[in-house]
Q: What sequence folds into this?
């Protein structure tokens, strides 16, 4: 049976009514689906200020009847995320997590740089990904999830705050054909591109949507559009299909 992976990003939880309403509406929609996802990926910027109370809110919101995999974004605090969401002792090292499902694996890679908004795949994270890929059975397809898109999105804001060592990710993808795609967030816009022959799939924003330069004179994040979700269908033959949906 194909795996169904729901993918949301950029909740920016800050305790305010509007942000809470948009995030709750998104999660309630996932709860109401005819078929529950096999996994929900939340690709960063879960909290807006990295405060403990924001992760307390996130933990309650993401207490779902299906598995949830998170990775940090540039607004997140590694130690607070570990403590508030993962139930781990707080530390400032990379928050690299994984989910091994039935017939697939998703590896969440920390691309955050404490104190900065751009992204980087550190040596520790890349080595961990390689070790995991080496130990997994050959027939298990793998998705990588990260906050910063490793591709150009043709918008000055995310392109200025992008992943700064894409060449290291390209080398990894060329080394491991079993990685069938890359999931990302950060840009507050649903998007699809390719890197090293693999699809790069960017989830829409929950808290806001980024207007593109050809849509409005001032390209900025707006809340006049509904939150968005990406649904990735990973088939038995390891092919990947993505559907983008607005939350009704």
A:
């Amino acid at each position: 049976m194909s795996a169904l992976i729901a993918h949301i990003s950029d909740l920016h939880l800050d305790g305010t009514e509007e942000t809470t309403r948009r995030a709750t509406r998104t999660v309630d929609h996932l709860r109401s689906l005819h078929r529950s996802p096999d996994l929900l990926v939340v690709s960063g910027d879960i909290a807006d200020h990295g405060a403990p109370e924001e992760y307390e809110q996130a933990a309650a919101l993401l207490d779902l009847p299906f598995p949830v995999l998170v990775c940090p974004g540039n607004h997140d605090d590694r130690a607070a995320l570990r403590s508030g969401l993962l139930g781990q002792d707080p530390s400032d090292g990379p928050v690299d997590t994984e989910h091994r499902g039935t017939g697939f694996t998703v590896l969440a890679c920390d691309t955050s740089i404490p104190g900065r908004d751009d992204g980087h795949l550190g040596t520790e994270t890349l080595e961990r990904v390689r070790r995991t890929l080496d130990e997994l059975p050959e027939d298990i397809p793998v998705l990588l999830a990260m906050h910063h898109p490793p591709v150009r999105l043709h918008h000055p804001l995310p392109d200025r705050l992008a992943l700064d060592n894409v060449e290291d990710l390209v080398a990894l993808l060329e080394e491991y054909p079993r990685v069938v795609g890359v999931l990302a967030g950060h840009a507050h816009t649903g998007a699809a591109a390719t890197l090293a022959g693999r699809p790069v799939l960017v989830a829409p924003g929950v808290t806001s949507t980024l207007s593109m330069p050809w849509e409005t004179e001032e390209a900025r994040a707006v809340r006049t559009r509904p939150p968005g979700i990406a649904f990735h269908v990973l088939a038995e033959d390891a092919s990947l299909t993505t559907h983008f949906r607005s939350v009704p």
